[in-house]
Amino acid sequence: MTVERILAVKGRDVVTTQPHRTLLEVSNLLAEKGIGAVIVVDAGANILGILSERDVVHAIAHHGPVALGEAVSKFMTAKVATTTRASSIQTVMEQMTTGRFRHVPVTHHGRLEGVVSIGDLVKYRIAEIESEHEALRDYIAHA
Question: Which residue in 1, 15, 67, 85 is a FRET match for 142, CA 20 to 30 A apart?
């Protein structure tokens, strides 16, 4: 199964923000949307970084409440690992495990096309395993 399958089911909507927005504004956006990360883009929708809940916690832990008034560009992860819709779920899971992150933007020809989370990947991997399990049960029952 590939990332394309996940995007076909979950959709390609991506929550983005601009680098000058404050950490408080983006924290409110994360809470409002019920998401764990937001992609930071420029006016041309080019990926500049990603800001996760973990980044927010680290900013407050290291800089105190004053961090909430600072621009997200100061705290975002600028080196963003991306994937493509042709990537396998296994490959992206390994990428996330190795990099120790939970959200990966999906790009196509350099353009942001979606985001997959570890939750998305686990959900589809479990569905795949359950399908295999059911096929084996049917095979055994009818053998």
Answer: 1
CA dihedral 123, 87, 115, 130 (to 10 degrees): -10
Of the chain, the end-to-end C-alpha distance in Å amounts to 28
- DSSP output for 50-77: EEEHHHHHHHHHHHGGGGGGSBGGGTSB
Inter-residue contact 108 to 87 (CB < 8 Å): no
pLDDT under 70 in the chain at which residues?
Answer: none
The two structure tokens encoding residue 34: 């019920």
pTM: 0.86
Tell me if 39 sits within 8 A of 106, measured CB to CB: no
Residues 6 or more apart whose Cβ sits within 8 Å of residue 28: none
| Domain around 19 | 3-141
Sheet order of strands, 47-52 included? 16-17, 37-41, 47-52
What's the confidence (pLDDT) of residue 134? 86
